[in-house]
Amino acid sequence: MEKDDLLTIYNNFLDYYALIDWHGIILPLKIISVILSIFLIFSIFFILFKIRKNIEKSLLTITESITAPGLPKKELDKKWQAIMDRLEKNNDGDYKMAIIEADNLFDDLLIRIGYQGEDMGERLKQITKAQLANIDELWQAHKIRNRIAHEQDFKLTYSQAKRAIEIYRRGMEDLEAL
Predict the structure, then answer these.
(1) How far apart (Å, rounded) are the C-alpha atoms in residues 42 and 113?
(2) Nearest Cα to Cα of residue 174 among 57, 62, 35
(3) Same structural domain for residues 83 and 165?
(4) Are 76 and 105 within 8 A, CB to CB?
(5) DSSP 3-state assignment of 119?
(6) Are the CB atoms for 47 and 54 separated by under 8 Å?
(7) N or C end of the chain: which has fewer CB within 10 A?
(8) What are the start-end ranges of the E strands in the chain?
(9) How many domains does the chain fold into?
């Protein structure tokens, strides 16, 4: 092909596209693009709504799996008040008993919820931070309880006892037991 042939093809191409009514074509293309954009925007919102709904359902399932529905709150409140009364007595033995009773009450709560295991340590291992925010602190409080139970000369201050009791209280509140 020669240069003139290429130039002729090019000019024919330009002439053909110059004859097209672009105003008549652009309007339908604009309408189609607006409709498509609206459809895609609604699709995005629909997908986000579904994702949000699924996340809420998952969180509700997690929450339900860790809360203590149907537990006798009056009984728990009464036991908890006895623990608090022990804590307010001004002696080391009552501080220790308050922690042991709080630990036993929390362990009983875990059993009632459905956690399995031979002891509280095994039940605590099954709980994640997503289920119970202060699980690490509960481990520390449980370790204090173990020291009280196994070390005869373990010294416990009021502030240590109060902190441990507060940890158990927060855990029970997170489980919606108190």
Answers:
(1) 42
(2) 62
(3) yes
(4) yes
(5) coil
(6) no
(7) N
(8) none
(9) 2
How many other C-beta atoms lie within 10 A of the C-beta of residue 116?
9
Identity of the amino acid at 165: I
| Cβ proximity of 165 and 99 under 8 Å | yes
pTM over 0.90: no
Cα distances (angstroms) measured from residue 62 to each of 21, 67, 132, 139: 62, 9, 10, 21
| 13 in the same domain as 51 | yes
With left for phi above 0 and alpha for psi between -120 and 50, is residue 153 left, alpha or beta? alpha
Give the model confidence (pLDDT) of 41-100 as tens digits: 999 999 988 888 778 776 665 555 455 555 667 788 888 999 999 989 888 889 999 999
Instruction: With beta carbons less than 8 A apart as the criterion, state whether 135 and 124 touch.
Output: yes
Q: Which two tokens stand for residue 168?
A: 């158990």
> CA–CA separation, 11 vs 8, rounded Å?
5
Tally of CA atoms within 13 A in the half-sphere of 148 that contains its CB: 23
Q: Which amino acid is at 156?
A: L
Q: Is 154 left (phi over 0), alpha (psi -120 to 50) or beta?
A: beta
CATH number for the domain spanning 105: value is 1.20.120
Q: Are 21 and 28 in contact (CB under 8 A)?
A: no
Residue ranges making up the domain that contains 101: 73-174
- The residue length of the chain stands at 178
Phi/psi at 72 (nearest 5 deg)?
-70, 100
First to last CA, the chain: 92
